[in-house]
Write a structure and sequence with these properties.
This protein has 227 residues and is an alpha/beta fold. 33% of the residues lie in helices and 17% in strands. The protein contains seven helices and eight strands, in the order βαβαβαβαββαβαβα. An eight-stranded parallel beta sheet has the order 7-6-5-4-3-2-1-8. Helix 1 runs parallel beside helix 2 and helix 6 packs across helix 7. The two termini are 17 Å apart.
């Protein structure tokens, strides 16, 4: 799987093409879907541009993106401020406005409660691992492990993630984004690319937009995959 991480917690000051509104996210999702992406990960915003998990904003964002790319997995992040468990509970009746999967960071003291809240509203859990941890018995609904790594930390983190028997998405950020993507492709793990992870192409020049980063990732993934 190649996932596009469209915006993350970045701001418009960091890149002029960063998609923040539902309409812009839908446009970028359509562009990357045309390149073979089967999952998009995004951070919905409220009317003042702050990250949010509130039901109305989630519903508008997800429904708008889903209309542009029907059939593609839509993922959101739970790594935002606020009382998140009741906000997630409000997603239950959202239907087309409910995400397919949401990321939960193991470093978050409330990660188990968040995972359980997601499971109760029929949203799968993408568990994000950034440091070695004893995960114990995983909560219901965990469907994937995302390993957020550097070239130095990838191996010890994969030693935790791989034995769990779930799909693994391995990615890095900023200077580590492309080296870690190359490693993930060689290991045949899922990969991701987009403005959340890096603003630069592999040659160090500034990317125009998410689609250009995804195109680079697709070429890298095909070149490095075992034959």
């Amino acid at each position: 799987m190649l996932q596009a991480c469209l915006n993350g917690s970045r701001t418009a000051r960091e890149h002029p093409a960063l998609p923040l509104t539902p309409e812009r996210l839908a446009e970028d999702a359509a562009d990357v879907a045309a390149l073979g992406v089967t999952s998009v990960h995004l951070h919905p915003r409220d009317v003042i541009g702050a990250e949010t998990l509130a039901g109305p904003e989630i519903a508008t964002t997800i429904a708008t993106v889903r209309a542009a790319v029907p059939g593609i997995e839509i993922s959101v992040s739970t790594d935002v401020p606020g009382n998140r468990v009741p906000l997630i509970a409000s997603w239950g009746p959202l239907a087309a406005g409910r995400p397919d999967i949401a990321s939960v960071h193991v470093r978050d003291p409330a990660w188990r409660e968040l995972a359980q809240a997601l499971h109760r509203v029929n949203v799968q859990v993408d568990l994000v691992l950034e440091a070695p941890a004893d995960l114990g018995d995983l909560p219901d609904g965990v469907a994937r492990i995302t390993v957020a790594a550097t070239t130095a930390t990838a191996e010890p983190l994969l030693r935790v993630a791989e034995p769990l028997g779930l799909p693994v998405l391995l990615h890095g950020r900023d200077a580590e984004a492309w080296p870690v993507l190359t490693r993930a492709a060689r290991l045949e793990h899922h990969v991701r690319a987009g403005l959340e992870d890096t603003l630069l192409k592999p040659d160090g020049t500034r990317a125009r937009n998410n689609a250009e980063l995804v195109a680079c990732a697709r070429r890298n993934q095909r070149a490095k995959a075992p034959r």
